[in-house]
Structure formats: C-alpha cells, structure tokens
C-alpha cells in the first residue's frame, strides 16, 4: 500500500471535502500545491486560518464584510431607496459584475424549500421586513431577485405577501426580475418556463 507524506495526505483529504471535487482531482490539486513557491502557500494558509473569524455579515444587508457595514451599504453614491432581494452573496456578485445596478441589497442566505425543511424563519426574511418597516417612507422599489426556479418563485411570492402586510401606506413598488432568453439562445431549445417568462416580460420594440 502506498503511503503519502502526512501533510500531503491531509491536504488531499481536505480538498475531497469540497463540493465538486472527487478523489482524483483532490490528489491532482494536492500534488500541484507542492510545485508552488513556499511564499504562496504561506500566504494562502494565513488567509485560510483567519477566513471564518474575519468574515462577518453586514448588519444592514447581510452581505459578507469585514466591517460592521459592507462596502455597498457604506457607498453614498448607491441608491438606498432601491433594495434588490437576492438568495445569496453569489447572486449579489453576479448583479454587481453587470455594473448596471446602483441600488442596495438584502441577502436572504437561502430560499424557502419545504422539501429540504427550509422555512421562511430559516432565512433572512424577518430582518428584511423590519428593515422595510423602518425605511418604508424612503423606499422607492424592492426588486425580488430570487432565482427563477420553483423555490425562488415561491420565496418571491411569500416575501411579496409579507411586504404587502408591512407596507402601511409606504409608496414603494415591488417588482420581480424579468427573465428572458440568453443572448444567442435558440427558441427551439429554450425550456417552457423561460419562454413563458420572456413572453410575459415582452416590451415595446
Ligand atoms: Zn450591506
């Protein structure tokens, strides 16, 4: 039986725990690290060892941050009267990468998913409602930007109902992202839901 040096073995076992990484890839990554300069490894292990302790949730929007409030909420140039409600930080990053959205966010950190026992209380809906109650008169729009799948739709619908309850005369509108066909898509191969949503979201041309 072949036995690898202990640190290499532990590193490979660590990689195996990561999503989408099988034993073979884990081994390849482990061996690859051996070829990197020592300084790179030290730098990476420094960040890994403090990763969890130094990463917090923004007190306002639940984006990841090292401070009390994240850089988006801190930015005076952002339009704080528009809040995009997203399922997770990855969705926030995608919207940010587009560089076309200048409002702020609210990160749910999940979506309602009864089959996996995730109820409205398990995600950041209550903090959203109290935020809306507090900021209600200054809000113009809340964009429900959850994913266009069954759970994302159900989450958006639930939030819309709760928002209607706390609206209390505030004039903000509640909108949902329009989902269209990806650029370069062929109608023939688009799935039924995408086609339906893009048809419903059609605009004057
Ligand atoms: Zn924030």
Q: What's the helix and strand layout?
A:
Elements lengths: L5 H11 L6 H12 L3 H17 L1 E2 L6 E2 L5 H4 L4 E8 L2 H10 L4 E5 L17 H11 L5 E4 L5 H17 L6 E4 L15 H9 L5
Parallel strand pairs: 3-4, 3-5, 5-6
Antiparallel strand pairs: 1-2
Helix pairs in contact: 1-2, 6-7
Q: Which key terms come to mind for this protein?
A:
four-stranded parallel sheet; 205 residues; alpha/beta; 12% strand; Dna Topoisomerase Vi A Subunit, Chain: A, domain 2; Helicase, Ruva Protein, domain 3; binds zinc ion; 2 domains; 44% helix; 8 helices; two-stranded antiparallel ribbon; single chain
Beta-strand content bin: 5-15%
**Count of helical stretches:** 8
Give a quick account of the main beta sheet: strands, pairing sense, barrel closure.
Answer: 4 strands, parallel
Number of strands: 6
User: What is CATH's topology name of the largest domain?
Assistant: Dna Topoisomerase Vi A Subunit, Chain: A, domain 2
- How much is the radius of gyration in Å? 22 Å
Description:
By secondary structure, the chain is α/β, with parallel strands linked by helices. The protein contains 8 helices and 6 strands; from the N terminus they run H-H-H-E-E-H-E-H-E-H-E-H-E-H. The protein has 2 domains: 6-54, Orthogonal Bundle (Helicase, Ruva Protein, domain 3); 76-176, Dna Topoisomerase Vi A Subunit, Chain: A, domain 2 (3-Layer(aba) Sandwich). The strands form 2 sheets. It has a 4-stranded parallel β-sheet with strand order 4-3-5-6. Helix 7 (150-166) links the parallel strand 5 and strand 6. The N and C termini lie far apart (69 Å). The mean pLDDT is 91. Zinc ion binds next to helix 4.
